[in-house]
């Protein structure tokens, strides 16, 4: 019998902050008001999504540690 390798752990959720207004997108919470369900990783947020506070583009967000 061969021993099976342990399952890889999921990467921790990250937070992203709008450089224009300071709004924080938390991957764990998502953004349900815009149809982005909880657990949605930043790379899976649509490229055309804009900051709901100031309208900044997704490119105007930076990953931050909270």
Describe this structure in words.
Helix content is about 0%, strand content about 15%. It has strands at about 15-20, 25, 60-65. It has a 3-stranded antiparallel beta sheet with strand order 2-1-3, with no helix packed on it. The chain starts with 14 loop residues before the first strand and ends with a strand.
Low-confidence stretches: none
Largest sheet: number of strands, sense, barrel closure: 3 strands, antiparallel
Radius of gyration: 15 Å
Number of extended strands: 3
What is the structural class?
Answer: mainly beta
State the order of secondary-structure elements, H for helix, E for strand. EEE
DSSP helix fraction: under 10%
Oligomer: single chain
Q: Could you tell me how far the N terminus lies from the C terminus, measured between alpha carbons in angstroms?
A: 45 Å
**Order of strands across the biggest sheet?**
2-1-3
- Total of helices: 0
State the shape. elongated
**β-sheet strand percentage:** 15-25%
Mean pLDDT: 91
Q: Gist?
A:
With 66 residues, the chain is mainly β. The chain is built from no helices and three strands.
Write the topology of this structure.
Elements: E1 15-18, E2 24-26, E3 61-64
Antiparallel strand pairs: 1-2, 1-3
Keywords:
single chain, 66 residues, three-stranded antiparallel β-sheet, elongated
